[in-house]
Protein: Tripartite tricarboxylate transporter permease
Amino acid sequence: MNEILIGLTTVLQPFNLVLCVVGTMVGIVFGALPGFSATMAVAVFIPFSYVLEPSGALLLLSGLYCGAVYGGSIPAILLGIPGTPASAPTAMEGRAMVRKGESGRALAVCTTASSFGGVASSLALLFLAPVLTVIALRVGPPEQMMIAIFGLSVVCLLVEGNAAKGLLVGFFALLLATIGQDPQVGYQRFTFGNLNLYAGVSLVPILIGLFSFPEVLGMLESDGQGYNEVNKAGKLIVDFKDYWNNKFCLVRSTIIGIIIGIIPAAGPDIAAFLSYNQAKKASKHPEEFGKGTVEGIIGSEAANNGVTGGSLIPLLSLGIPGSAPAALFLSAMYIHGLQPGSQLFTTNADTAYSLMVGFVIINIVMFFLGLLFCKVANFILVIPKSVLATLIVILATVGAYATNKSMFDVIQFYIAGVVGYIMVKNDYPLSPVALALLLGSMLETSISQTIVMYPNNILEMFTRPYTIVFTLLVVVSLLWPVVRKQISKKGAKTI
Structure:
């Protein structure tokens, strides 16, 4: 407790508080711009941390990390364009709520759920790091493989009303994920000699194109009915009932985010989709998902922000980053002479605890800054549709280029946009593409590593307890739609 008080005293120093606020504000802006991820925000500001004290540097980077993960949800709701891949499930529900004139409610729910998930994961980081680190130590390639399969099983539920088309889209997206270098033998596959494809297709430009173009062309196609008449800016009101009625979803999603956060190679993107899927499974009204439901936004946002604190648990305890931004945190720590592990909590206890306490304060600050930012951003919906469509295309193009500073990414962005528009017009779902591209590489790499671990009998991986747990989750996920239909039929007969 004494170390926590020391950390709190350090964070509450005026200069450190300013760093928390500035980092969070800049992070929100980074996340809200299509193509500018949390990883990019942290990477850009690492050089600025050189001149700061270790505590101040880590607090600045923490604000950037948390703010950027949350910020991607703002354009996802207002424009249907996820600022980061983790906001893709939020876009599905938020955009539908905007069309019902509930943009303010959607933004308020998103901000509150994000802050709740962030604060809870920060408290887990502060009080449960040693316990939760045990999970990180026992998660290897077999567990990662089953997590990826579990994530892909989400497709069955996300496209429940259109399963054939959803599975077809997911299958072709998985094929796209195989483009590039083989993770085991290093051969180039399906690149056709194009050097730009050696590292595979670019996830962020493709997702931006898939989700932005259908929205932009939908604005321009609206005939007689103005875009602004369909998309009304609702009042930004925080209604406690929205959270109390969905309290179990809020807590469950946060726990999923924390657990996914401590697993290396996973991250907020996977957590958001998995939690969204679980929210739909547990919902009393699953038919409302995709049509604008508060429950879907809570499920996505509480989880992807729950990852932030969770990803630092194995980092601080073992030096194992749970996400890409956490890996950049590791480099920043080395720059300032900090060594993860037991020594960090003894020799550098003041810095370690200021970081963990700072995470709690940053997520509280993010709630108020987020509401302020959303209040201003909500006015986007009153901009004339022709101007807004032009701005979206320009920002999305810049975001696609900024990902890797490559014009080839811009080409991928426009191709994905045209394909996305055709898919929407022909009633093909977009979410399986995002999910398959996110998980494809992780699945292939973990399968290769698992085969190397168990060359004689791959079934030996089921001697690992966590592998069994995730396998059971896969089975439940695949069978649940069938079970729920049977329950519904029996309920209908009873009535």
Summary: Residues 2-494 form one domain. Confidence is low (pLDDT under 50) at residues 223-230. The CA atoms of residues 151 and 274 lie 6 Å apart.
